[in-house]
């Protein structure tokens, strides 16, 4: 998996870097775990400070785009809460 930076900008308001990567050399969409390991190693940043905003790969293509946000402190990283399934909500 080859990754290169397309865009790298600093957002001082949120104390973070917003980076867009291009991903190539993979026949499948890379997992968040693989991307997180690669990015944290390349940028020399703790994985706890990285938030993967999205992985986008078009059908039939072997290249894609990854958008990430690198925060200054791990406490600033947004915590995602999975929504409960609607079927479970109906039971109540």
Q: Descriptors for this entry?
A:
92 residues, alpha+beta, four-stranded antiparallel beta sheet, elongated
How is this structure best summarized?
The protein is 20% helix and 38% strand. It has 92 residues and is an alpha+beta fold. A four-stranded antiparallel β-sheet has the order 1-2-4-3, covered by helices on one side.
Q: In the residues, how many domains can be counted? A: 1
**Any idea what the CATH architecture is?**
2-Layer Sandwich
| CATH fold annotation | Alpha-Beta Plaits
Low-pLDDT ranges = none
Radius of gyration: 16 Å
Taken from the alpha-carbon principal axes, the silhouette is elongated
Kindly state the mean pLDDT as a whole number?
83
Q: Could you please describe the fold and organization of this structure?
A:
- This protein is an alpha+beta fold.
- It has one domain (2-91): RRM (RNA recognition motif) domain (Alpha-Beta Plaits, 2-Layer Sandwich).
- It is built from two helices and four strands, in the order ββαββα.
- It has helices at residues 32-43, 86-91, and strands spanning 2-11, 16-24, 50-57, 64-71.
- Strand 3 (50-57) and strand 4 (64-71) form a beta hairpin.
- The radius of gyration is 16 Å and the shape is elongated.
